[in-house]
Amino acid sequence: MTCGSWYTRFLFLKQTHSFTPCLCPSECPFESSCPHNISQRVLERQATTEHDTCAQNEATSYYTSCNFLKTSEKWRVADTAERFSQQNRETPPGSSNLLETLLENHRTSNSSATLSSCVSMEPCACAEECMFTALSHADVTFGKMEGYLRSRQLCDVILVAGDRRIPAHRLVLSSVSDYFAAMFTSDVREAKQDEVKMEGVDPDALWVLVQYAYTGRLELREDTIESLLSASCLLQLSSVVQACCAFLMKQLHPSNCLGIRSYADAQGCHDLQRAAHAYTMEHFLEVVGGQEFLLLPVEEMERLLTSDDVNVPDEETVVTSLLTWVSHDVATRERHLPSLLAHIRLPLLQPQFLADLESNPLLRDSMECQRLLMEGMKYHLLPQRRPLLQSPRTRPRKATVGAMFAVGGMDATKGATSIEQYCLRRDTWRQVATMSGRRLQFGVAVLDDRLYVVGGRDGLKTLNTVECYNPHSKTWSVMPPMSTHRHGLGVAVLEGPMYAVGGHDGWSYLSTVERWDPQARQWSFVASMATPRSTVGVAVLNGKLYAVGGRDGSSCLRSVECFDPHTNRWNGCAPMAKRRGGVGVATWHGFLYAIGGHDAPASSLASRLSDCVERYDPQTDVWTTVAPMSISRDAVGVCLLGDRLYAVGGYDGQVYLNTVEAYDPQTNEWTQVAPLCVGRAGACVVAVRL
After folding, report:
1. The domain spanning residue 371 has which CATH number?
2. What is the pLDDT of residues 60-76, one digit of tens each?
3. What is d(CA 491, CA 616) in angstroms, rounded to the nearest whole number?
4. Span of the secretion signal (predicted)?
């Protein structure tokens, strides 16, 4: 557009863009493009004739500036103009019409965008950039509050403990302690008192905790920890309670664990109580030699005797500790002896030890004590009646049963060489050793507390080699080999010698049996079974060797044979209800158990894995089905540990299992226990007294 005169150009700009002079030129952030400055420059050139190009450039500059203002600062212009009008600020002559025009344009604009920008003034969308945070605010504030505490300024309450008066601020105490929060914010007498009596609180401990409320710091010392813990429990300072308990846990020792356990119980510190109790159980042999043990009240002594977790090598140790405790104060404690002796597992004592107890001066004059001793004697004299004599006194303590070992087996790497050990008291597995080489389908038996690993196969090669592992020294030794190479064999110890039963030699299924004489250190053959058996289950019961199930090359077997070493003959027994190869077997109190397995070769489409458990009674020659496992397990390792049967690992048709479950014959129930470190099938599982 070409404008002939400055006035024509000015009218064009005014009518087209409705500008107004800047109302606050000193504060305007857009000084160079402000409408006021542009219009001022136009007015100042009223008497000057310029080329149309100059006017056009001026108009272009103004138009650009107005567009910027419309999008970025329109709300500010409108708001400034509004305030200008309300305050009746004096304007230059000839400017009022322009101001009214600007305000009218803002009020009546049909543009929703213009209306929105004029009316809606939203805060900054980036709150993080607009919010100021004083990072040290809490430290500075509480630092000043601590200063007020020490100078006794602005204090509004005095805590009285004993002869000590401690000024403080209710707000600070309430913000840290739930005890004080409840006191000062509820309708109780103390909420309105200037002085509050703190009954039963150590004054020094209270002062330390008041300082902690302001600083968040306190010193933990052996000589003050108990009073500090008691006070923090009362004041419900949970963080201080936790810190004190953690401190005391680190101080646990055989000489103080009983006292800490009793103290924690009184204070309701359950984590500390459990830690002290576990420490006492773990170090029982050292604890009974300390002064705290001799001073135990009868209730605490009874608590120790009833625990299954006492870490003792045998039940004789527990009896000895009881008699020591009674002897420390015979006059007071002798009357408690019958009730305490009832918690001793007397049937599990050695017969000679029981006979000696019968003549003990503390026991011989008590009819109840003599009755309990006779009960223990009957357990030894009538072994065939033991299943009928089961009671809490016949359940062994966890530490007295030894440990369970799971040796080798098939795993995801096609052959595990590791040996894992299970601790019943802790319910944990850990790897303890490694075999010298890979073995599959081997046998393991315990002889003189050593593990004998017999036969097996390494890939396609069937082995006749034997290794011996000493769990005490954690060493391996090589033993004389068998006469026959065998995998899928069963191994067990009967009256001293070890037997290797059946298996496969790489060519055929075996019915032959070899016996290892530990004295002569040599192998010899005994009578063969009536049926060849591989993946056979072998166990010893009532002086006889049982061979259960297995495979004969054509099918899985349900037949059972037993070997009498005195006649060197195998005799048939009642067959199981199910065919079982890869079966796990174990004995408990006169019964033989057959657990899991498969009923046909894996190549058969009809092959099924089993969760079924059967129990054999040699007195009646009858198999009975009992509670099944939670899942099917083929090639499962089975072992008696304590008074429970453990089913370890196995194969469920898809994966090698690391799960373990325990069967309680007294309740006929299975329960899950800690899993193996490595899933494995065909592991040999045995128990060893450590």
Report:
1. 1.25.40.420
2. 444 444 444 444 444 44
3. 20
4. none
The DSSP 8-state label assigned to residue 651 in this structure reads: B
Which pLDDT does position 602 carry in this prediction? 62
Taking phi first (over 0 means left), then psi (-120 to 50 degrees means alpha), and beta for anything else, what does residue 488 get? Answer: left
d(CA 358, CA 370): 7
Q: What is the predicted pLDDT for the residue at 29?
A: 40
Q: Which of 97, 123, 149 is the last residue of a domain?
A: 123
Would you say 253 and 233 are in contact if contact means Cβ atoms under 8 Å apart?
no
269 Cβ neighbours under 8 A, 6+ residues apart: 229, 233, 241, 245
pTM: 0.73
Query: Which of 378, 398, 418 lies at the terminal end of a domain, its last residue?
Result: 398
* Distance, CA of 196 to CA of 605 (rounded, Å): 83
Residues 592 and 496 both lie in one domain: yes
What local confidence, expressed as pLDDT, does residue 192 receive?
A: 79
Residue 161 within a domain: yes
3-state secondary structure of 646: strand
pLDDT value at residue 74:
42
The residue type of 524 is S
* Cβ-contact 513, 489 below 8 angstroms: no
Q: E-assigned strands of 549-655? A: 560-564, 569-573, 584-588, 591-595, 613-617, 622-626, 637-641, 644-648
CATH number assigned to the domain comprising residue 532: 2.120.10.80
Are 362 and 422 in the same domain? no
Q: Are 555 and 600 contacting, i.e. CB atoms less than 8 angstroms apart?
A: yes
Same domain as 15, residue 109: yes
Report residues of the chain scoring pLDDT below 50. Answer: 1-82, 84-85, 87-103, 106-122, 124
Q: Compute the distance between CA of residue 376 and CA of residue 307 in angstroms, rounded to an integer.
A: 19
The per-residue pLDDT for 128 is: 56
CA–CA distance from 366 to each of 2, 360, 372, 687 (Å)?
Answer: 132, 10, 10, 38
Q: Residue 109: inside a domain, yes or no?
A: yes
pLDDT of residue 17: 45
Neighbouring residues of 66: CB distance < 8 A, sequence distance ≥ 6: 17, 19, 35
Name the nearest CA neighbour of 593 among 639, 657, 532: 639
Structure tokens at 474: 């954690």
Give residue 311's domain range.
296-398
Pairing outcome for strands 591-595 and 613-617: antiparallel
Same domain flag for 195 and 324? no
Answer whether 237's CB lies under 8 Å from 209's CB. yes
Residue 279 lies in a domain: no
**Which pLDDT score, from 0 to 100, does residue 27 have?**
41
- The reply to whether 288 falls in a domain is no
Neighbours of 562 (CB within 10 A): 22
Pair 543, 624 in one domain? yes
Look at residue 129 in the predicted model and tell me its pLDDT: 72
232 and 246 fall within a common domain: yes
pLDDT score, position 194 = 86
Note whether 409 and 544 are same-domain residues: yes
Looking at the structure, tell me whether residues 14 and 87 fall in a common domain: yes
Can you give the pLDDT at residue 154? 86
Strand order across the beta sheet in which 669-673 lies: 637-641, 644-648, 660-664, 669-673
Give the count of domains, the chain.
Answer: 4
State the Cα–Cα distance between residues 356 and 133, nearest whole angstrom.
Answer: 79
